[in-house]
Amino acid sequence: MWPFTGRTAERDRVRSALRADGGILISGDAGSGRTRLLAESLAGAHGSSARVQGIGPEVPFGAFAHLLGTPRCPVNPLGWAIQALGEPPAILAVDDAHLLDPCSAALVRHLVTRSGTRLAATVRAGAPVPEPIQALWREGVADRLDLAPLNPRETGLLLAAALGGPVEVTTARRMHHASGGNVRLLTELVPGATLAKVAGQWHWQGELTITPRLRQLVEAELASLDPAETEAVGLVALGEPVDLDVLLDLADRDAVARLQQRGLIVLTPPRARLANPIVARVARDRAPARTQERLARLVPAPDTRAERWSAELSAREIEVARLASWNLTNREIADWLVLSPRTVANHLCRVYTKLGVHDRGDLAPFLATA
Questions:
Q1: Which of the four, 69, 233, 277, 284, has the lowest number of CB atoms within 10 Å?
Q2: pLDDT exceeding 70 applies to what percent of the chain?
Q3: What DSSP designation does 365 have?
């Protein structure tokens, strides 16, 4: 297990909330570290505690099954559950509270508002939350903590703690960009990275490698999307940075809004892109030919020169050339594609040679098919 680093302020806030009445809801994206934060915050807490986890809406009191025993079919289910639970815990930890069944959610609310139990619960950002849980925050009974992605500095500190030594600044920035500040992606990114210690600092050498485990995690995230969201992600992955107007013409607008809320898509008008290159690469691999065909319909037809010369570029050279045509610097392109600036410069040199051009301003006509 990686050391707990970079979330100390959030941990202190949760612990503070647990010393007061009510409690706190921890909201974060998948892989943001909300479950680990919950566990670290509960360490050393005073008073009796119980921990439950939302498992879906199908089974009444499913989250509390290990505490209540076999449920009966009483006239008053909540009253039965309160009696079966016995002495209420001083602290109740609920992981994945957005997955609580209605009966479990009602029991949580009762314990907090009627029995004085203090609550620490995690919810997934952007997911529907059961009304009894949502009401605790809305009515001011419980506080809410929105868990942001790690910033570059926090990413560097976590890497240094995990690797047992300082991490070179550019390496920390590349790792942050590749993971999007997502703790789970970061921990799975490191095993596939070529890291070497140079002058006492860890350096990431080479390009981004997606390990089978990393791909599996991203595919599981993408598999949770509905069809409209899947189509929108595919369109962005295949065309990024895609023109926002094109995306909104082709994709369901509500789906795009949901993806933005979940942190999968970043909208910076007039363009849209995926939050990090790991998701983008896996999404491109998963995108069906139909999605590519739909996107191609709104791409201007290339002229003969563009079609002839762009065919000579490799996939990586096309990516670099496309970003360079938007006047991004080598450093910005390197961050975007998780490369070193020197590698970007080498790619651009080959692009210029193949296309017979001399600067970024000459690239646009050649990229109509890229």
A1: 69
A2: 91
A3: G
